[in-house]
Request: fold
Amino acid sequence: VVACLGGNGREPVRIFLTMLYVGIWQGIRLAQGYVEELRHRKLFLMRLGCGTDFFGRCLNVDGQFLESAQGQEKLAAASENLYSGTERGIEVYLEAFLSLLVSLGGLLVYGTILAGEHPLLLLFLALQAIPVIGMNMRAGKRSFRLAGENDHNWDMFLYLRRESVSPSNGKDIRMYRMDRWFLRAFGEVMNRFVKGRVREKEGFVAAGITEKVISFLRDILVYGFLICQMSLGLISVPVFLVYVGAAAGFGGWMSGVF
Reply:
């Protein structure tokens, strides 16, 4: 409202068009979230239907082939494609590509707003986002390297839990007093799993803390600069509000691209 009513001449029209452009792009981002939820729903229902057909075929397949090494390998691959495709397959890249396009569009919108009058401010915002982007990319690569190890430790934990409560193993556990061995094995596996998860997530935690600190310093410098510009009469209150919003959203769009 302030942007539309403040200022003289063509300034209110220019600011109104800018706000309208930003509002349209935010609406696209909201629609993207809705479309992604619909996508996940359809994929879930599709995999649910495929699962029924998958287990039906497993019951009809030759048992000797299913117990062979080749059969077990194909069974594991089919199960992974059926239940993990949403998180690992080409679908992940398609979803990330859509998010990339939306983030790139938002970055262009906010970058255009800032570059029109204050290119140095745009350069400053781009430079302050680089450390956080680099830390997040490094943390993502590290998480990908540790994912296999963490999955193995979790599978080992599930195996121990399954074997420790199996009625067929009860006699052997009592005779050989394997309860203490199971407790020790549980502790070792869980310690490895927890340490792996901590190593996997600590990079993202460090990046998040760094982002909060940099954002705090950025707000002090940007707001101080814009307030000085406004007090000197170089920009009006509506322009100040538009630039403050653009500066606040620029880092998020840039992180979304990278």
The two ends are 34 Å apart (CA to CA). Residues 1-9 have pLDDT under 50 and may be disordered. The CA atoms of residues 95 and 160 lie 36 Å apart. The chain has nine helices and no strands.
